[in-house]
Design brief:
The chain is an alpha+beta fold and 190 residues long. The chain folds into three domains: 44 residues, no CATH class; 82 residues, Alpha-Beta Complex (Homing Intron 3 (I-Ppo) Encoded Endonuclease, Chain A), CATH 3.90.75.20; 40 residues, no CATH class. The protein is built from six helices and eight strands, in the order ββαββββαββαααα. It has a two-stranded antiparallel sheet with strand order 1-2. Strands 3-4 form a two-stranded antiparallel ribbon. The N and C termini lie far apart (84 Å). The relative contact order is 0.07.
Length: 190
């Protein structure tokens, strides 16, 4: 009897037919699945590289395909669902992404899909990164009515025992907004 070596698990087995390259159907299916996945990844990479252009100045791969959201983040069909292009890029070039983990940008360019510009982190890590880079919307970036000096004046008036209703009418905002400012729930950077 001829001996054969399984292409999947490398176990030696008795080879009865010339075409038999696996010790079991389970190994044959596993091997075919891996082959399909590697072919799928290669075809996805070919599709992926057609949808961005490289920016020489920053090194960003800017997503150019029409399928984008309001932030300019690209999307791509991958493994049976629509996924952010940055996540697809990471999976294609770096490996799988654990559940509940974000692909964060070091370049802060939402439309960038360059895997060299990514790092993995939790939602908390991503939020802290945003705050550390001062990209969070707060204060004057967020408010249409109040300025930094108005908030300081509101806190001063509150210290002088003026009522929150009086202050809210004076600045044209709600009493709740005044309460949150006074308790430093908002505008806490001042």
């Amino acid at each position: 009897m001829k001996m054969g070596q399984c292409l999947e698990c490398s176990i030696m087995f008795g080879k009865y037919r010339k075409v038999l390259n696996f010790c079991s159907r389970k190994c044959a299916k596993k091997f075919q699945s891996k082959k399909y996945q590697s072919d799928y990844i290669e075809k996805t990479k070919e599709r992926f590289v057609k949808n961005f252009r490289e920016c020489e100045k920053t090194g960003c791969w800017v997503w150019t395909k029409d399928y984008k959201d309001s932030y300019g983040r690209g999307y791509l069909w991958f493994k049976g669902t629509t996924i952010l292009a940055s996540r697809v890029s990471y999976m294609l070039y770096c490996g799988e992404i654990p559940k509940e983990i974000c692909v964060c940008h070091t370049c802060d360019n939402y439309s960038c899909v360059n895997p060299k510009h990514f790092f993995l982190g939790s939602h908390k890590d991503n939020a802290e990164d945003r705050v550390n880079k001062q990209r969070s919307a707060n204060g004057e970036k967020l408010s249409k009515k109040l300025k930094n000096e108005d908030v300081l004046k509101i806190r001063d008036l509150h210290k002088k025992n003026k009522s929150q209703d009086f202050i809210s009418r004076m600045f044209g905002v709600t009493q709740t907004a005044i309460s949150r400012i006074v308790r430093r729930k908002t505008w806490n950077h001042l």
